[in-house]
């Protein structure tokens, strides 16, 4: 595999206004993997050049429900270059794997090609050929006939019903219905979000190669250890026999955390043919190869006293899931914590539809949840006749209303203040349709967002090498969020070297294990693990320098030494001063190596395996005395064309509390990325279903619209966080998912202010406004 080894040039040096060195934690170091990506030196999973590579192409069902009656593969098999056509009858089955909690699977075979069709786009066959073009041509010749049965295509389908209650999602305190009935001011509204897709730039795909009973998979992955476990279970080989390699990833946004059926097809094909097999999804296939964000329906009722102080919130939610899989999008997650209320009730159902199982997409749960409650609170502000910012402050939750625990840190009031000040909120004219510029109606909206601090245990290896450079190894990943960079900064600061002298190696499951890069947890987990490993490497280095008779510091009788800029000296600067390389040479060592593991001391090997390959051991964000969340407030200006109903976002100011930032430059970029995705969600993104066949019509990036540069105004982000010692070792909270939460309701609220029309169905398209 390729590991980037980039020297950090002068252009990356610090520019932090507070004087923080770019290379330390908290500095604005540019992405250390940037040059490799820009120059094309970064090699992505399916770009590996392997001897004897064969190519697999999937054939997908064209009906949403029913059975495969027959597959006629004769023509395809006879077509040039074809090595094998795999069907449910000819592929060798796998074993069922456990889920991401590690729940023991049923002891039954798993066939990644379907006979029983539960959604349109399901894999029913695969053609393996010498070249990709031959495989594509032959795949078009595979004839599949079906016995079709009626399907339920989406939540609006009359046959969908109320669905299945998910009791674990119920949250209740006080008597919310009674308090609502007694409240003098009441609002009740329904809010909907459609199926949305992660649409990462790099489509899903992999290369699988077997060497005896050992499998190597080059596949973009947010979770190497978890996916390696699934492959190992599928093929009933030991976990250690599977190696996942994923040094660079072209975005995931939640879609690349799990091994999926196309991976099983490719790995099985490789085993059956005794050749490495590459399988890359087409862009249309990515719309059914894994789930996007589930469509959701919510009703939010709020009862207040005459001044707008909340007495009751009643929330009901529904999300779609698939016929044979379960996905719960936690719709009450923000509803239950954003505002203080003495009475609360939230319940959720899921409805099975003929679709691929939906999955995690940037801030699953919190994102649609915030659309409901942050729209509803805005409606309430107009009902009472007070400012939308004021109603939020009036109902500010001084502690977690659900667990009644203290917030670890909650700089939300500060976020409202800083954002309002910078945006100029005080100049807002309260009435809808009261601000305009020619035929453009101007609207200003505000909404808050939050995301829990998910914590977990981590592990890393730090080596100090003979040339004085430092190497960090971890099987965690960087899909663009900045892991390479912040871990270089953490190791540089802890050991006392320059960041240019640190090489970070990620994305190989042979490295020190790591859990999922999901739920905005990786940065906190891995900076903790690397600082622990680096501290122990430093201790070894200093220990050697003090105790080894060959060390120039031996005679000094100091009990500690200082390491900075790659040099070792005495704390008072009165003794020798040598480079790390010189010291290692003098004591005859070619390296120092330390593994840092933040797991409890009494952890067993089984605990460690479970910790890295399942999500069962994550630490609850409400563990102990505190409730831990990151917070944000978005202030957004829209301009709506009065005649055409087109909406443009013209200004965004967001203030965010992610605790201490490991690298403000990268955190700001993450926040902006989330906000941009939120603008797409508010105005553009929607999977459109062909109701006849249950097919996603706009399954490509020309028709499934995501924002382009022209859709995005200047976005200003302000950090209002303070170090949070209860959330992570270095005081940071989550960044990656926070930014998107609250953007869509802020835009919907701005659109109401501009037009007087309340749009409760995303996306806000022009036909909903005229
Ligand atoms: N960071 C920081 N200070 C903190 C926390 C984080 O400076 N206190 C910065 C670091 O650069 C860090 C990044 O923010 O690398 C993200 O950290 P974190 O919030 O811990 O999130 P993860 O590393 O776990 O990344 C996953 C997260 C998720 S869950 C999704 S979804 C998402 C996201 O990150 N998908 C992304 N950001 C993405 N960014 C890109 N470019 N592509 C994706 O697919
Ligand atoms: Mo993020 S949706 O948790 O990968």
How would you characterize this protein structure?
- This protein is an alpha+beta fold and about 775 residues long.
- It folds into 3 domains: about 5-40 and about 455-615, Aldehyde oxidase/xanthine dehydrogenase, molybdopterin binding domain (Aldehyde Oxidoreductase, domain 4, 2-Layer Sandwich); about 45-150 and about 200-290, Aldehyde Oxidoreductase, domain 4; about 400-455 and about 620-770, 2-Layer Sandwich (Aldehyde Oxidoreductase, domain 4), CATH 3.30.365.10.
- The protein is about 25% helix and about 25% strand.
- It contains 16 helices and 34 strands.
- The strands form 9 sheets. A 7-stranded mixed beta sheet has the order 3-7-1-15-12-13-14. Strands 9, 10, 11, 16, 17 and 18 form a 6-stranded mixed beta sheet that branches.
- Helix 5 (about 225-235) links the parallel strand 13 and strand 14 (about 240-245).
- Helix 8 packs across helix 9 and helix 8 (about 365-385) runs parallel beside helix 16 (about 745-755).
- The radius of gyration is 27 Å and the shape is globular.
- The chain starts with about 35 loop residues before the first helix and ends in a 15-residue tail after the last helix.
- The model is unreliable at about 1-15 (pLDDT under 50).
- It binds pterin cytosine dinucleotide and dioxothiomolybdenum(VI) ion.
- Pterin cytosine dinucleotide (MCN) binds near residues 251, 483, 486, 522 and 658.
């Amino acid at each position: 595999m390729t590991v980037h080894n980039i020297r950090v040039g002068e252009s990356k040096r610090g520019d932090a206004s507070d004087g923080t060195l770019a290379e330390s934690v908290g500095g604005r170091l540019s992405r250390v993997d940037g040059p490799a990506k820009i120059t094309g030196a970064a090699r992505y999973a399916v770009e590996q050049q392997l001897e004897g590579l064969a190519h697999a192409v999937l054939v997908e069902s064209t009906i949403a429900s029913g059975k495969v009656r027959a597959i006629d593969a004769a023509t395809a098999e006879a077509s040039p270059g074809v090595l094998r056509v795999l069907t449910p009858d000819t592929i060798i089955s796998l074993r069922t794997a456990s889920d991401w909690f590690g729940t023991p699977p049923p002891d039954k075979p798993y066939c990644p090609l379907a006979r029983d069709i539960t959604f349109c786009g399901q894999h029913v066959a695969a053609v393996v050929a010498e070249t990709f073009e031959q495989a594509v041509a032959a795949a078009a010749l595979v004839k599949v006939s079906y016995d079709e049965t009626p399907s339920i295509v989406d939540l609006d389908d009359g046959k969908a019903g109320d669905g299945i209650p998910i009791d674990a999602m119920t949250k209740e305190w006080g008597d919310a219905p009674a308090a609502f009935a007694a409240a003098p001011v009441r609002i009740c509204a329904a809010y909907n979000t459609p199926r949305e897709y992660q649409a990462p730039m790099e489509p899903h795909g992999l290369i699988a190669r077997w060497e005896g009973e050992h499998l190597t998979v080059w596949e973009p992955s947010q979770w190497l250890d978890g996916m390696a476990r699934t492959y190992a279970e599928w093929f009933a080989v030991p976990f250690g026999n599977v190696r996942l390699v994923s040094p660079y990833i072209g975005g995931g946004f939640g879609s690349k955390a799990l091994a999926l059926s196309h991976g099983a097809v490719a790995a099985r094909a490789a085993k059956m043919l005794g050749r490495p097999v590459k399988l890359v999804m087409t862009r249309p296939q990515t719309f059914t190869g894994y789930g996007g964000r589930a469509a959701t329906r919510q009703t939010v009722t709020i009862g207040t006293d005459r001044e707008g102080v909340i007495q009751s919130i009643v929330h009901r939610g529904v999300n779609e899931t698939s016929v044979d899989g379960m996905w719960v999008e936690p719709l009450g997650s923000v509803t239950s914590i954003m505002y203080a209320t003495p009475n609360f009730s939230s319940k959720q159902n899921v409805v099975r539809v003929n679709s691929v199982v939906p999955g995690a997409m940037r801030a699953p749960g919190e994102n649609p949840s915030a659309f409901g409650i942050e729209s509803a609170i805005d409606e309430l502000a107009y009902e009472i006749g007070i400012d939308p910012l004021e109603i939020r402050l009036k109902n500010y939750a001084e502690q977690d209303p659900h667990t009644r625990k203290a917030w670890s840190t909650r700089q939300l009031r500060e976020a409202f203040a800083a954002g309002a000040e910078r945006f100029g909120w005080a100049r807002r004219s309260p009435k809808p349709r009261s601000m305009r510029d020619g035929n453009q109606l101007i609207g200003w909206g505000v909404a808050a967002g939050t995301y829990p601090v998910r914590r977990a245990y981590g592990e890393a290896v730090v080596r100090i090498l003979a040339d004085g450079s430092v190497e960090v190894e971890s099987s965690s990943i960087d899909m663009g969020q900045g892991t390479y960079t912040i871990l270089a900064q953490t190791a540089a600061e802890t050991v006392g070297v320059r960041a240019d002298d640190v090489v970070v190696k990620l994305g190989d499951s042979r490295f020190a294990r790591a859990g999922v890069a999901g739920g905005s947890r990786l940065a906190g987990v891995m900076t903790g693990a690397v600082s622990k490993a680096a501290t122990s490497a430093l201790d070894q280095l200093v220990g050697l320098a003090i105790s080894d008779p060959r060390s120039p510091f031996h005679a000094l009788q100091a009990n500690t030494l200082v390491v900075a800029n790659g040099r070792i000296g005495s704390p008072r600067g009165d003794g020798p001063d040598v480079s790390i390389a010189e010291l290692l040479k003098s004591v005859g060592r070619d390296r120092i190596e330390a593994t840092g593991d933040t797991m409890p001391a009494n952890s067993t090997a089984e605990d460690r395996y479970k910790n890295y390959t399942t999500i069962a051991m994550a630490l609850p964000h409400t563990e102990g005395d505190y409730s831990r969340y990151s917070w944000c407030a978005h202030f957004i200006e829209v301009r709506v064309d009065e005649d055409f109903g087109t909406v443009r976002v013209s200004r965004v100011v967001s203030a965010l509390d992610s605790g201490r930032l490991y690298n403000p430059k990268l955190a700001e970029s993450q926040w902006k990325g989330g906000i941009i995705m939120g603008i797409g969600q508010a105005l553009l993104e929607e999977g459109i279903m062909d109701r006849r066949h249950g097919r996603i019509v706009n399954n490509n990036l020309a028709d499934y619209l995501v924002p382009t540069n022209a859709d995005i105004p200047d976005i200003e982000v302000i950090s209002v966080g303070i170090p949070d010692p209860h959330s992570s070792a270095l005081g940071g909270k989550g960044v990656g998912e926070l930014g998107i939460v609250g953007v869509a309701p802020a835009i919907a609220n701005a659109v109401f202010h501009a037009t007087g029309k309340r749009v409760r169905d995303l996306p806000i398209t022009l036909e909903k406004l005229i």
